[in-house]
Design brief:
Length: about 170
């Protein structure tokens, strides 16, 4: 496992460019402060070395993949944070308005449940596909489905905006 000091600038640059390319194609924007964004990317690489997966660099991972599944970058909270606050919790991903300098970055409240709340939620989960805990949204253009409080800002498949989604279930 590489130590943080053993991570090269080239490794950081490669992952940064990969995220910029792939996430940009999906309609997401990295923080326009490249130095700040690359520090977060370095944290992703460190966490991948520690845990075997790129957990969010701004949250404390447990090392249990099942417990940390919600904070593997991009975390489950990215899209609601972008919708509500124009940035994700750590600030790696920002809205188009922030990326263009039209809005400032501001602090984002933590929305991840506590370990106790996550444990309770796991205990309540049904294995028989009982009642859904989130509404299901369908992209009217390509048929993409997702279960979450709100539809994504952009469809990850066809890239249309959230207004093209309808409540499916």
């Amino acid at each position: 496992m590489p130590k943080e000091t053993e991570i090269s600038a080239e490794q950081v640059d490669q992952l940064y460019e990969k995220l910029k390319r792939e996430q940009g194609a999906a309609g997401y924007h990295l923080n326009p402060d490249e130095g700040f964004a690359k520090d977060l990317v370095r944290g992703l690489i460190v966490n991948e070395g520690r845990y075997g997966y790129q957990s969010c660099p701004c949250r404390l991972a447990s090392g249990d993949p099942d417990d940390d599944r919600d904070i593997v970058c991009p975390c489950d909270y990215r899209d609601p944070d972008l919708t509500d606050h124009d940035a994700c919790y750590c600030g790696l991903y920002v809205s188009e308005a922030v990326a263009k300098g039209e809005k400032p970055l501001r602090p984002i409240p933590e929305r991840r449940p506590t370990p106790e709340e996550r444990a309770e939620a796991r205990d309540r989960q049904q294995t028989d596909f009982g009642p859904l805990s989130y509404p299901v949204w369908r992209c009217r253009v390509c048929g993409y489905l997702c279960a979450r409080d709100e539809p994504p800002e952009r469809c990850p498949i066809c890239k249309v905006t959230k207004d093209r989604f309808e409540r499916f279930l």
